[in-house]
Write a structure and sequence with these properties.
heterodimer, A: mainly alpha, MetI-like fold, B: mainly alpha, 72% helix
Chain lengths: 306, 282
Protein backbone atom coordinates (compact mmCIF):
# COMPACT_ATOMS: atom_id res chain seq x y z
CA UNK A 1 0.00 0.00 0.00
CA UNK A 2 2.70 2.47 1.06
CA UNK A 3 4.81 1.56 -1.97
CA UNK A 4 1.81 2.00 -4.23
CA UNK A 5 1.14 5.38 -2.70
CA UNK A 6 4.71 6.53 -3.16
CA UNK A 7 4.70 5.31 -6.76
CA UNK A 8 1.54 7.28 -7.33
CA UNK A 9 3.09 10.42 -5.86
CA UNK A 10 6.18 10.07 -8.05
CA UNK A 11 3.94 9.58 -11.05
CA UNK A 12 2.00 12.72 -10.20
CA UNK A 13 5.17 14.74 -9.83
CA UNK A 14 6.42 13.46 -13.20
CA UNK A 15 3.14 14.37 -14.89
CA UNK A 16 3.29 17.88 -13.43
CA UNK A 17 6.89 18.18 -14.61
CA UNK A 18 5.82 17.07 -18.07
CA UNK A 19 2.94 19.53 -18.19
CA UNK A 20 5.30 22.31 -17.08
CA UNK A 21 7.88 21.37 -19.72
CA UNK A 22 5.41 21.15 -22.59
CA UNK A 23 3.66 24.40 -21.69
CA UNK A 24 6.97 26.16 -21.25
CA UNK A 25 8.29 25.03 -24.62
CA UNK A 26 5.02 25.93 -26.34
CA UNK A 27 4.96 29.40 -24.83
CA UNK A 28 8.61 29.87 -25.79
CA UNK A 29 8.00 28.75 -29.36
CA UNK A 30 4.87 30.80 -29.96
CA UNK A 31 5.36 34.01 -31.91
CA UNK A 32 3.88 36.28 -29.20
CA UNK A 33 6.59 38.36 -27.54
CA UNK A 34 5.93 39.33 -23.91
CA UNK A 35 8.67 41.98 -23.86
CA UNK A 36 7.10 43.85 -26.75
CA UNK A 37 3.72 43.53 -25.08
CA UNK A 38 4.99 45.16 -21.87
CA UNK A 39 6.96 47.85 -23.66
CA UNK A 40 3.97 48.92 -25.70
CA UNK A 41 3.60 49.76 -29.35
CA UNK A 42 5.79 52.85 -29.54
CA UNK A 43 8.77 51.50 -27.58
CA UNK A 44 12.20 51.54 -29.16
CA UNK A 45 14.11 48.35 -29.89
CA UNK A 46 16.47 49.31 -27.04
CA UNK A 47 13.64 49.41 -24.48
CA UNK A 48 12.30 46.09 -25.64
CA UNK A 49 15.77 44.56 -25.40
CA UNK A 50 16.18 45.96 -21.87
CA UNK A 51 12.90 44.50 -20.73
CA UNK A 52 13.77 41.21 -22.31
CA UNK A 53 17.06 41.07 -20.41
CA UNK A 54 15.38 42.15 -17.19
CA UNK A 55 12.90 39.27 -17.44
CA UNK A 56 15.62 36.84 -18.44
CA UNK A 57 13.93 36.24 -21.78
CA UNK A 58 17.20 36.73 -23.66
CA UNK A 59 18.58 33.48 -22.27
CA UNK A 60 18.34 30.14 -24.00
CA UNK A 61 15.34 27.87 -23.51
CA UNK A 62 17.07 25.29 -21.26
CA UNK A 63 18.48 28.03 -19.02
CA UNK A 64 15.09 29.72 -18.73
CA UNK A 65 13.32 26.46 -18.01
CA UNK A 66 15.89 25.45 -15.43
CA UNK A 67 15.50 28.71 -13.53
CA UNK A 68 11.70 28.41 -13.72
CA UNK A 69 11.87 24.84 -12.49
CA UNK A 70 14.21 25.57 -9.59
CA UNK A 71 11.88 28.37 -8.51
CA UNK A 72 8.90 26.08 -8.89
CA UNK A 73 10.47 23.42 -6.66
CA UNK A 74 10.76 26.08 -3.95
CA UNK A 75 7.07 26.81 -4.39
CA UNK A 76 7.73 29.99 -6.29
CA UNK A 77 5.63 30.53 -9.41
CA UNK A 78 7.36 33.76 -10.32
CA UNK A 79 6.00 37.27 -10.78
CA UNK A 80 3.38 38.42 -13.24
CA UNK A 81 4.89 40.54 -16.04
CA UNK A 82 1.99 42.95 -16.21
CA UNK A 83 0.87 43.16 -12.59
CA UNK A 84 4.29 42.77 -10.93
CA UNK A 85 2.68 40.60 -8.25
CA UNK A 86 3.52 37.06 -7.18
CA UNK A 87 1.62 34.65 -9.43
CA UNK A 88 0.88 32.39 -6.46
CA UNK A 89 -0.78 35.31 -4.65
CA UNK A 90 -2.88 36.15 -7.70
CA UNK A 91 -4.01 32.56 -8.13
CA UNK A 92 -4.75 32.05 -4.44
CA UNK A 93 -6.85 35.23 -4.49
CA UNK A 94 -8.91 33.94 -7.40
CA UNK A 95 -9.08 30.29 -6.44
CA UNK A 96 -11.98 30.49 -3.93
CA UNK A 97 -14.27 31.97 -6.60
CA UNK A 98 -13.44 29.23 -9.10
CA UNK A 99 -13.70 26.47 -6.50
CA UNK A 100 -17.10 27.78 -5.41
CA UNK A 101 -18.26 27.73 -9.02
CA UNK A 102 -16.79 24.29 -9.67
CA UNK A 103 -18.24 22.80 -6.50
CA UNK A 104 -21.72 24.21 -7.19
CA UNK A 105 -21.57 23.02 -10.78
CA UNK A 106 -20.57 19.51 -9.73
CA UNK A 107 -23.34 19.36 -7.14
CA UNK A 108 -25.91 20.38 -9.77
CA UNK A 109 -24.73 17.87 -12.33
CA UNK A 110 -24.33 14.96 -9.94
CA UNK A 111 -27.75 15.45 -8.36
CA UNK A 112 -29.42 15.98 -11.72
CA UNK A 113 -27.51 13.18 -13.42
CA UNK A 114 -28.12 10.65 -10.65
CA UNK A 115 -31.84 11.40 -10.52
CA UNK A 116 -32.42 11.36 -14.26
CA UNK A 117 -30.15 8.38 -14.87
CA UNK A 118 -31.87 6.32 -12.16
CA UNK A 119 -35.35 7.17 -13.42
CA UNK A 120 -34.34 6.31 -16.98
CA UNK A 121 -32.85 2.96 -15.94
CA UNK A 122 -35.89 1.95 -13.91
CA UNK A 123 -38.20 2.90 -16.77
CA UNK A 124 -35.88 1.43 -19.36
CA UNK A 125 -37.25 1.50 -22.90
CA UNK A 126 -40.24 3.61 -21.93
CA UNK A 127 -41.16 7.13 -22.88
CA UNK A 128 -39.45 8.73 -19.86
CA UNK A 129 -36.25 6.83 -20.63
CA UNK A 130 -36.21 8.07 -24.23
CA UNK A 131 -36.92 11.61 -23.10
CA UNK A 132 -34.06 11.56 -20.59
CA UNK A 133 -31.67 10.06 -23.12
CA UNK A 134 -32.60 12.66 -25.71
CA UNK A 135 -32.23 15.47 -23.15
CA UNK A 136 -28.84 14.14 -22.13
CA UNK A 137 -27.77 14.18 -25.77
CA UNK A 138 -28.87 17.79 -26.08
CA UNK A 139 -26.96 18.53 -22.88
CA UNK A 140 -23.68 17.13 -24.17
CA UNK A 141 -24.11 18.83 -27.56
CA UNK A 142 -24.99 22.31 -26.34
CA UNK A 143 -22.30 24.99 -26.57
CA UNK A 144 -21.57 26.27 -23.07
CA UNK A 145 -21.46 29.93 -24.02
CA UNK A 146 -24.83 29.80 -25.77
CA UNK A 147 -26.48 28.19 -22.75
CA UNK A 148 -24.81 30.79 -20.55
CA UNK A 149 -26.15 33.60 -22.72
CA UNK A 150 -29.59 31.98 -22.90
CA UNK A 151 -29.88 31.67 -19.11
CA UNK A 152 -28.62 35.21 -18.77
CA UNK A 153 -31.20 36.45 -21.26
CA UNK A 154 -34.15 34.63 -19.74
CA UNK A 155 -33.47 34.69 -16.01
CA UNK A 156 -31.43 37.85 -15.61
CA UNK A 157 -32.30 40.27 -18.41
CA UNK A 158 -35.96 39.38 -18.94
CA UNK A 159 -37.25 37.97 -15.66
CA UNK A 160 -34.76 39.78 -13.46
CA UNK A 161 -34.55 36.89 -10.96
CA UNK A 162 -30.79 36.81 -10.86
CA UNK A 163 -28.07 39.44 -11.32
CA UNK A 164 -26.45 39.77 -14.76
CA UNK A 165 -22.94 39.30 -13.47
CA UNK A 166 -20.78 39.59 -10.41
CA UNK A 167 -19.79 37.58 -7.42
CA UNK A 168 -20.49 37.43 -3.72
CA UNK A 169 -23.99 36.25 -2.89
CA UNK A 170 -25.85 33.01 -3.48
CA UNK A 171 -27.96 34.46 -6.28
CA UNK A 172 -24.78 35.25 -8.22
CA UNK A 173 -23.73 31.62 -8.31
CA UNK A 174 -27.04 30.15 -9.50
CA UNK A 175 -26.79 30.87 -13.22
CA UNK A 176 -23.09 30.01 -13.71
CA UNK A 177 -23.51 26.82 -11.70
CA UNK A 178 -26.62 25.92 -13.66
CA UNK A 179 -24.76 26.46 -16.93
CA UNK A 180 -21.96 24.14 -15.91
CA UNK A 181 -24.24 21.65 -14.18
CA UNK A 182 -27.08 21.29 -16.67
CA UNK A 183 -24.65 20.54 -19.49
CA UNK A 184 -22.52 18.14 -17.48
CA UNK A 185 -25.59 16.31 -16.16
CA UNK A 186 -26.02 14.71 -19.60
CA UNK A 187 -22.85 12.65 -19.19
CA UNK A 188 -23.78 11.60 -15.67
CA UNK A 189 -27.32 10.64 -16.60
CA UNK A 190 -26.08 8.38 -19.40
CA UNK A 191 -23.46 6.79 -17.23
CA UNK A 192 -25.71 6.22 -14.24
CA UNK A 193 -28.35 4.77 -16.53
CA UNK A 194 -26.01 2.24 -18.08
CA UNK A 195 -24.48 1.31 -14.71
CA UNK A 196 -27.94 0.94 -13.17
CA UNK A 197 -29.12 -1.29 -16.00
CA UNK A 198 -26.11 -3.53 -15.43
CA UNK A 199 -26.81 -3.73 -11.71
CA UNK A 200 -30.56 -4.24 -12.06
CA UNK A 201 -29.87 -7.30 -14.20
CA UNK A 202 -27.75 -8.98 -11.55
CA UNK A 203 -28.80 -11.99 -9.53
CA UNK A 204 -28.90 -10.33 -6.15
CA UNK A 205 -31.43 -7.83 -7.44
CA UNK A 206 -33.57 -10.70 -8.68
CA UNK A 207 -33.24 -12.30 -5.24
CA UNK A 208 -34.33 -9.09 -3.59
CA UNK A 209 -37.28 -8.92 -5.89
CA UNK A 210 -38.16 -12.56 -5.16
CA UNK A 211 -38.08 -11.78 -1.45
CA UNK A 212 -40.88 -9.35 -2.15
CA UNK A 213 -39.03 -6.11 -1.39
CA UNK A 214 -40.62 -2.97 -2.73
CA UNK A 215 -39.17 -1.71 -5.95
CA UNK A 216 -38.26 1.58 -4.32
CA UNK A 217 -36.20 -0.23 -1.70
CA UNK A 218 -34.49 -2.29 -4.38
CA UNK A 219 -33.67 0.75 -6.47
CA UNK A 220 -32.31 2.95 -3.72
CA UNK A 221 -30.90 0.52 -1.15
CA UNK A 222 -29.71 -2.33 -3.33
CA UNK A 223 -28.99 -1.08 -6.83
CA UNK A 224 -28.04 2.58 -6.64
CA UNK A 225 -25.07 2.29 -4.26
CA UNK A 226 -23.49 -0.16 -6.69
CA UNK A 227 -24.07 2.11 -9.64
CA UNK A 228 -22.42 5.11 -8.02
CA UNK A 229 -18.85 3.97 -8.60
CA UNK A 230 -18.47 5.24 -12.18
CA UNK A 231 -19.89 8.57 -11.02
CA UNK A 232 -17.02 8.94 -8.55
CA UNK A 233 -14.48 8.23 -11.29
CA UNK A 234 -16.31 10.66 -13.54
CA UNK A 235 -16.04 13.50 -11.03
CA UNK A 236 -12.29 13.05 -11.11
CA UNK A 237 -12.21 13.37 -14.89
CA UNK A 238 -14.75 16.14 -14.80
CA UNK A 239 -12.54 18.49 -12.86
CA UNK A 240 -10.34 18.67 -15.93
CA UNK A 241 -13.28 19.66 -18.10
CA UNK A 242 -14.24 22.28 -15.56
CA UNK A 243 -10.83 23.90 -15.47
CA UNK A 244 -11.15 24.70 -19.17
CA UNK A 245 -14.86 25.41 -19.08
CA UNK A 246 -14.51 28.05 -16.40
CA UNK A 247 -12.68 30.33 -18.82
CA UNK A 248 -15.82 30.58 -20.96
CA UNK A 249 -18.39 30.63 -18.17
CA UNK A 250 -16.40 33.11 -16.09
CA UNK A 251 -16.04 35.35 -19.14
CA UNK A 252 -19.79 35.41 -19.80
CA UNK A 253 -20.82 35.94 -16.18
CA UNK A 254 -17.95 38.22 -15.19
CA UNK A 255 -16.99 35.74 -12.48
CA UNK A 256 -13.68 36.78 -10.87
CA UNK A 257 -12.01 33.34 -10.86
CA UNK A 258 -8.82 31.93 -12.29
CA UNK A 259 -10.49 31.55 -15.68
CA UNK A 260 -10.73 35.33 -15.95
CA UNK A 261 -7.19 35.65 -14.62
CA UNK A 262 -5.97 33.27 -17.33
CA UNK A 263 -7.95 34.98 -20.06
CA UNK A 264 -6.53 38.37 -19.12
CA UNK A 265 -3.03 36.94 -18.92
CA UNK A 266 -3.35 35.27 -22.32
CA UNK A 267 -4.22 38.57 -23.92
CA UNK A 268 -1.24 40.26 -22.27
CA UNK A 269 1.11 37.35 -23.00
CA UNK A 270 1.74 37.24 -19.27
CA UNK A 271 3.62 33.95 -19.36
CA UNK A 272 4.14 33.40 -15.60
CA UNK A 273 0.39 33.60 -15.00
CA UNK A 274 -0.42 31.31 -17.95
CA UNK A 275 2.12 28.80 -16.63
CA UNK A 276 0.74 29.12 -13.11
CA UNK A 277 -2.87 28.59 -14.13
CA UNK A 278 -2.01 25.65 -16.40
CA UNK A 279 -0.07 23.98 -13.60
CA UNK A 280 -2.85 24.67 -11.10
CA UNK A 281 -5.38 23.12 -13.50
CA UNK A 282 -3.18 20.10 -14.14
CA UNK A 283 -2.72 19.68 -10.38
CA UNK A 284 -6.49 19.86 -9.92
CA UNK A 285 -6.99 17.18 -12.58
CA UNK A 286 -4.37 14.90 -11.04
CA UNK A 287 -5.73 15.39 -7.52
CA UNK A 288 -9.26 14.79 -8.79
CA UNK A 289 -8.23 11.45 -10.25
CA UNK A 290 -6.26 10.57 -7.13
CA UNK A 291 -9.19 11.28 -4.83
CA UNK A 292 -11.50 9.29 -7.11
CA UNK A 293 -9.09 6.34 -6.96
CA UNK A 294 -8.83 6.60 -3.17
CA UNK A 295 -12.59 6.77 -2.65
CA UNK A 296 -13.40 3.90 -5.02
CA UNK A 297 -12.19 1.07 -2.70
CA UNK A 298 -14.02 2.63 0.24
CA UNK A 299 -17.29 2.41 -1.67
CA UNK A 300 -16.62 -0.88 -3.41
CA UNK A 301 -14.62 -3.31 -1.23
CA UNK A 302 -14.11 -5.63 -4.21
CA UNK A 303 -11.53 -3.21 -5.60
CA UNK A 304 -9.44 -3.48 -2.42
CA UNK A 305 -8.62 -7.12 -3.00
CA UNK A 306 -7.42 -6.55 -6.55
CA UNK B 1 -24.75 -1.20 -46.84
CA UNK B 2 -25.97 -3.15 -43.82
CA UNK B 3 -24.82 -0.31 -41.61
CA UNK B 4 -26.67 2.25 -43.69
CA UNK B 5 -29.85 0.19 -43.59
CA UNK B 6 -29.72 -0.23 -39.82
CA UNK B 7 -29.01 3.47 -39.40
CA UNK B 8 -32.04 4.45 -41.43
CA UNK B 9 -34.23 2.15 -39.38
CA UNK B 10 -33.63 4.17 -36.18
CA UNK B 11 -35.74 7.33 -36.09
CA UNK B 12 -33.25 9.18 -33.91
CA UNK B 13 -30.33 8.38 -36.18
CA UNK B 14 -32.43 9.26 -39.21
CA UNK B 15 -33.14 12.66 -37.68
CA UNK B 16 -29.39 13.13 -37.17
CA UNK B 17 -28.59 12.12 -40.73
CA UNK B 18 -31.17 14.51 -42.13
CA UNK B 19 -29.76 17.45 -40.18
CA UNK B 20 -26.20 16.54 -41.13
CA UNK B 21 -27.22 16.35 -44.79
CA UNK B 22 -28.98 19.71 -44.53
CA UNK B 23 -25.86 21.32 -43.08
CA UNK B 24 -23.67 19.74 -45.75
CA UNK B 25 -25.96 20.92 -48.53
CA UNK B 26 -26.19 24.39 -46.98
CA UNK B 27 -22.40 24.56 -46.90
CA UNK B 28 -21.88 23.29 -50.45
CA UNK B 29 -24.64 25.32 -52.03
CA UNK B 30 -24.20 28.46 -49.91
CA UNK B 31 -23.52 30.75 -52.90
CA UNK B 32 -26.69 29.51 -54.59
CA UNK B 33 -29.00 29.58 -51.57
CA UNK B 34 -27.79 32.73 -49.88
CA UNK B 35 -30.04 35.66 -50.77
CA UNK B 36 -27.30 38.22 -50.06
CA UNK B 37 -23.54 38.51 -50.03
CA UNK B 38 -22.57 37.49 -46.46
CA UNK B 39 -20.01 40.30 -46.17
CA UNK B 40 -22.16 43.04 -47.68
CA UNK B 41 -22.90 45.67 -45.03
CA UNK B 42 -26.19 46.84 -46.43
CA UNK B 43 -27.56 50.29 -45.85
CA UNK B 44 -31.15 49.03 -45.66
CA UNK B 45 -29.96 46.19 -43.38
CA UNK B 46 -30.12 48.57 -40.42
CA UNK B 47 -33.03 50.49 -38.94
CA UNK B 48 -33.08 54.27 -39.05
CA UNK B 49 -31.48 54.33 -35.60
CA UNK B 50 -28.74 52.04 -36.87
CA UNK B 51 -29.97 48.97 -35.01
CA UNK B 52 -30.00 45.49 -36.58
CA UNK B 53 -33.31 44.35 -38.08
CA UNK B 54 -35.29 41.54 -36.42
CA UNK B 55 -36.23 38.39 -38.37
CA UNK B 56 -38.88 38.74 -41.05
CA UNK B 57 -39.19 40.81 -44.19
CA UNK B 58 -36.53 40.59 -46.87
CA UNK B 59 -33.99 39.47 -44.31
CA UNK B 60 -35.28 36.03 -43.33
CA UNK B 61 -33.46 35.78 -39.99
CA UNK B 62 -32.78 39.49 -39.54
CA UNK B 63 -29.50 41.35 -39.87
CA UNK B 64 -26.45 41.74 -37.67
CA UNK B 65 -25.04 44.88 -36.10
CA UNK B 66 -23.29 45.84 -39.34
CA UNK B 67 -26.37 45.37 -41.51
CA UNK B 68 -25.32 42.02 -42.97
CA UNK B 69 -27.91 39.34 -43.67
CA UNK B 70 -27.81 36.77 -40.85
CA UNK B 71 -29.21 33.90 -42.94
CA UNK B 72 -26.51 34.31 -45.58
CA UNK B 73 -23.82 34.54 -42.94
CA UNK B 74 -25.09 31.38 -41.26
CA UNK B 75 -25.00 29.53 -44.60
CA UNK B 76 -21.40 30.53 -45.21
CA UNK B 77 -20.64 29.83 -41.57
CA UNK B 78 -21.66 26.22 -42.20
CA UNK B 79 -18.70 25.99 -44.59
CA UNK B 80 -16.30 27.18 -41.93
CA UNK B 81 -17.65 24.81 -39.32
CA UNK B 82 -17.69 21.79 -41.61
CA UNK B 83 -14.21 22.41 -43.00
CA UNK B 84 -12.81 22.72 -39.50
CA UNK B 85 -14.88 19.76 -38.34
CA UNK B 86 -13.62 17.51 -41.11
CA UNK B 87 -10.00 18.68 -41.22
CA UNK B 88 -9.40 19.03 -37.49
CA UNK B 89 -11.14 15.82 -36.61
CA UNK B 90 -9.60 13.96 -39.54
CA UNK B 91 -6.15 14.96 -38.35
CA UNK B 92 -7.01 14.12 -34.75
CA UNK B 93 -8.29 10.65 -35.64
CA UNK B 94 -5.26 10.01 -37.85
CA UNK B 95 -2.82 11.01 -35.11
CA UNK B 96 -4.82 9.01 -32.57
CA UNK B 97 -4.84 5.92 -34.80
CA UNK B 98 -1.14 6.20 -35.47
CA UNK B 99 -0.10 6.71 -31.86
CA UNK B 100 -2.52 4.08 -30.57
CA UNK B 101 -1.50 1.40 -33.10
CA UNK B 102 2.20 1.99 -32.75
CA UNK B 103 2.06 2.04 -28.94
CA UNK B 104 -0.15 -1.03 -28.85
CA UNK B 105 1.83 -3.03 -31.40
CA UNK B 106 5.43 -2.05 -30.77
CA UNK B 107 5.21 -1.83 -26.98
CA UNK B 108 8.69 -1.97 -25.50
CA UNK B 109 10.38 1.27 -24.65
CA UNK B 110 9.00 3.26 -27.57
CA UNK B 111 5.44 2.10 -27.02
CA UNK B 112 5.59 2.89 -23.32
CA UNK B 113 7.03 6.30 -24.09
CA UNK B 114 4.15 7.08 -26.47
CA UNK B 115 1.55 5.97 -23.95
CA UNK B 116 3.13 7.95 -21.13
CA UNK B 117 3.01 10.97 -23.40
CA UNK B 118 -0.67 10.30 -24.04
CA UNK B 119 -1.30 10.02 -20.29
CA UNK B 120 0.47 13.33 -19.88
CA UNK B 121 -1.81 14.93 -22.43
CA UNK B 122 -4.80 13.58 -20.48
CA UNK B 123 -3.71 15.69 -17.52
CA UNK B 124 -3.69 18.81 -19.69
CA UNK B 125 -6.73 21.03 -19.36
CA UNK B 126 -7.61 20.65 -23.06
CA UNK B 127 -9.77 23.71 -23.54
CA UNK B 128 -7.29 25.91 -21.68
CA UNK B 129 -4.48 24.60 -23.88
CA UNK B 130 -6.52 25.27 -27.01
CA UNK B 131 -7.32 28.79 -25.82
CA UNK B 132 -3.67 29.57 -25.06
CA UNK B 133 -2.49 28.22 -28.41
CA UNK B 134 -5.21 29.87 -30.47
CA UNK B 135 -4.79 33.21 -28.72
CA UNK B 136 -1.01 33.38 -29.04
CA UNK B 137 -0.85 32.19 -32.62
CA UNK B 138 -2.23 34.38 -35.36
CA UNK B 139 -5.71 32.89 -35.64
CA UNK B 140 -6.90 31.64 -39.00
CA UNK B 141 -9.09 28.83 -40.21
CA UNK B 142 -6.19 26.38 -40.52
CA UNK B 143 -4.51 27.36 -37.27
CA UNK B 144 -7.80 26.82 -35.45
CA UNK B 145 -8.19 23.42 -37.11
CA UNK B 146 -4.65 22.41 -36.09
CA UNK B 147 -5.11 23.61 -32.51
CA UNK B 148 -8.29 21.55 -32.21
CA UNK B 149 -6.62 18.49 -33.72
CA UNK B 150 -3.75 18.90 -31.29
CA UNK B 151 -5.98 18.63 -28.22
CA UNK B 152 -8.48 16.09 -29.57
CA UNK B 153 -6.33 13.13 -30.66
CA UNK B 154 -5.65 11.94 -27.12
CA UNK B 155 -8.92 10.13 -26.51
CA UNK B 156 -8.76 8.29 -29.84
CA UNK B 157 -5.20 7.22 -29.12
CA UNK B 158 -6.19 5.69 -25.78
CA UNK B 159 -9.05 3.68 -27.25
CA UNK B 160 -7.07 2.50 -30.27
CA UNK B 161 -4.22 1.51 -27.98
CA UNK B 162 -6.46 -0.68 -25.84
CA UNK B 163 -8.04 -2.29 -28.90
CA UNK B 164 -4.72 -2.91 -30.63
CA UNK B 165 -3.32 -4.60 -27.55
CA UNK B 166 -6.31 -6.89 -27.53
CA UNK B 167 -5.96 -7.66 -31.23
CA UNK B 168 -2.26 -8.44 -31.05
CA UNK B 169 -2.98 -11.27 -28.61
CA UNK B 170 -5.52 -12.89 -30.92
CA UNK B 171 -4.79 -16.17 -32.65
CA UNK B 172 -5.18 -14.94 -36.21
CA UNK B 173 -2.40 -12.43 -35.70
CA UNK B 174 -0.16 -15.14 -34.29
CA UNK B 175 -1.07 -17.33 -37.27
CA UNK B 176 -0.09 -14.53 -39.64
CA UNK B 177 3.15 -14.08 -37.81
CA UNK B 178 4.03 -17.76 -37.94
CA UNK B 179 3.30 -17.69 -41.66
CA UNK B 180 6.07 -15.13 -41.89
CA UNK B 181 4.05 -11.96 -42.45
CA UNK B 182 6.02 -8.76 -41.88
CA UNK B 183 5.07 -6.05 -39.40
CA UNK B 184 3.80 -3.76 -42.14
CA UNK B 185 1.54 -6.45 -43.56
CA UNK B 186 0.11 -7.35 -40.15
CA UNK B 187 -0.43 -3.72 -39.20
CA UNK B 188 -2.07 -2.54 -42.39
CA UNK B 189 -3.88 -5.64 -43.62
CA UNK B 190 -4.91 -7.26 -40.37
CA UNK B 191 -4.97 -4.81 -37.50
CA UNK B 192 -6.02 -1.60 -39.21
CA UNK B 193 -9.23 -3.07 -40.74
CA UNK B 194 -10.36 -4.16 -37.28
CA UNK B 195 -9.92 -0.62 -36.03
CA UNK B 196 -12.05 0.90 -38.77
CA UNK B 197 -15.31 0.79 -36.76
CA UNK B 198 -13.62 2.73 -33.96
CA UNK B 199 -12.21 5.22 -36.45
CA UNK B 200 -15.62 5.70 -38.07
CA UNK B 201 -17.42 6.16 -34.75
CA UNK B 202 -14.84 8.65 -33.46
CA UNK B 203 -14.68 10.32 -36.85
CA UNK B 204 -18.36 11.11 -36.40
CA UNK B 205 -18.56 11.83 -32.67
CA UNK B 206 -15.40 13.91 -32.87
CA UNK B 207 -16.96 16.29 -35.39
CA UNK B 208 -19.51 17.30 -32.75
CA UNK B 209 -16.71 18.08 -30.29
CA UNK B 210 -14.80 19.94 -32.97
CA UNK B 211 -17.77 22.07 -34.04
CA UNK B 212 -18.34 23.02 -30.39
CA UNK B 213 -14.67 23.80 -29.81
CA UNK B 214 -14.42 25.94 -32.94
CA UNK B 215 -17.55 27.84 -31.90
CA UNK B 216 -16.13 28.36 -28.42
CA UNK B 217 -12.78 29.65 -29.69
CA UNK B 218 -14.49 31.92 -32.22
CA UNK B 219 -16.87 33.13 -29.52
CA UNK B 220 -13.85 34.20 -27.45
CA UNK B 221 -12.57 36.07 -30.49
CA UNK B 222 -9.55 33.82 -30.99
CA UNK B 223 -11.01 31.45 -33.57
CA UNK B 224 -11.94 32.17 -37.15
CA UNK B 225 -11.62 35.92 -37.65
CA UNK B 226 -14.41 38.15 -38.97
CA UNK B 227 -15.42 39.09 -41.63
CA UNK B 228 -15.10 35.40 -42.56
CA UNK B 229 -18.31 34.11 -40.99
CA UNK B 230 -18.32 31.27 -38.49
CA UNK B 231 -21.20 30.37 -36.19
CA UNK B 232 -19.08 31.19 -33.17
CA UNK B 233 -17.81 34.56 -34.34
CA UNK B 234 -21.31 35.69 -35.36
CA UNK B 235 -22.17 35.38 -31.67
CA UNK B 236 -18.86 36.96 -30.67
CA UNK B 237 -19.58 40.01 -32.81
CA UNK B 238 -23.08 40.55 -31.47
CA UNK B 239 -22.58 39.40 -27.87
CA UNK B 240 -22.60 42.85 -26.31
CA UNK B 241 -25.79 43.56 -28.20
CA UNK B 242 -27.63 40.41 -27.31
CA UNK B 243 -30.27 41.92 -25.05
CA UNK B 244 -31.51 44.15 -27.84
CA UNK B 245 -31.01 41.63 -30.65
CA UNK B 246 -31.27 38.14 -29.11
CA UNK B 247 -31.78 36.49 -32.51
CA UNK B 248 -28.15 37.25 -33.34
CA UNK B 249 -27.11 34.95 -30.52
CA UNK B 250 -29.83 32.34 -30.51
CA UNK B 251 -30.11 31.45 -34.21
CA UNK B 252 -26.42 30.63 -34.54
CA UNK B 253 -26.53 29.04 -31.07
CA UNK B 254 -29.40 26.77 -32.06
CA UNK B 255 -27.63 25.80 -35.26
CA UNK B 256 -24.42 24.93 -33.42
CA UNK B 257 -26.47 22.82 -30.99
CA UNK B 258 -28.42 21.05 -33.74
CA UNK B 259 -25.29 20.28 -35.73
CA UNK B 260 -23.35 18.94 -32.76
CA UNK B 261 -26.41 16.99 -31.62
CA UNK B 262 -26.85 15.39 -35.04
CA UNK B 263 -23.25 14.25 -35.30
CA UNK B 264 -23.53 12.86 -31.78
CA UNK B 265 -26.75 10.99 -32.60
CA UNK B 266 -25.31 9.49 -35.79
CA UNK B 267 -22.04 8.60 -34.09
CA UNK B 268 -23.83 6.96 -31.19
CA UNK B 269 -26.08 4.95 -33.52
CA UNK B 270 -23.00 3.91 -35.52
CA UNK B 271 -21.34 2.71 -32.33
CA UNK B 272 -24.37 0.61 -31.48
CA UNK B 273 -24.38 -0.96 -34.92
CA UNK B 274 -20.65 -1.47 -35.34
CA UNK B 275 -19.99 -2.61 -31.80
CA UNK B 276 -22.91 -4.73 -30.62
CA UNK B 277 -21.35 -5.32 -27.20
CA UNK B 278 -21.95 -1.67 -26.37
CA UNK B 279 -25.58 -1.75 -27.45
CA UNK B 280 -28.00 0.04 -25.18
CA UNK B 281 -25.34 0.99 -22.69
CA UNK B 282 -25.48 4.65 -23.60
Amino acid sequence: MAILFIRRLVQMALILLGVAAITFVLLYALPADPARMIAGRSATAQTVANIRRELGLDQSLPVQFWSYLSNLLQGNLGRSYAQKTEVATLIMARLPATLTLMFSGIVVEVVLGLTLGTIAAVRRGGFVDRLVMMASFVGVSAPQFVVALLLLYVFAATLGWFPMSGYGTFSHVVLPAATLGVLGAGWYARMVRSAMIDVLNQDYVRTARAKGLSSRRITFRHALPNAVLPVIAMIGIDIGQFMGGVVVVEAVYGWPGIGQLAWQAIQQVDIPIIMGVTLTSALAIILGNLVADLIAPVIDPRIRTR
Amino acid sequence: MRVMKELLRQPVALFGILIVLTVVIAALAAPMIAPFDPDNQMFDGLSLEGAPLPPGGPFLLGTDTLGRDLFSRLLYGARTSLIIGLVANGVAVTIGLFVGIVAGYVRGFFGTLLMRFTDLMMAFPALLLAIVLAALLRPSLWIVAMVIALVNWVQVARIVYTETRGLVERDFIMAERSLGAGHGRILFLHILPHLMPTAIVWGTLGIATTVLLEATLSFLGIGVQPPQPSWGNIIFESQSYFQAAPWLVFFPGAIILLTALSFNLVGDALRDILDPTQRGRG
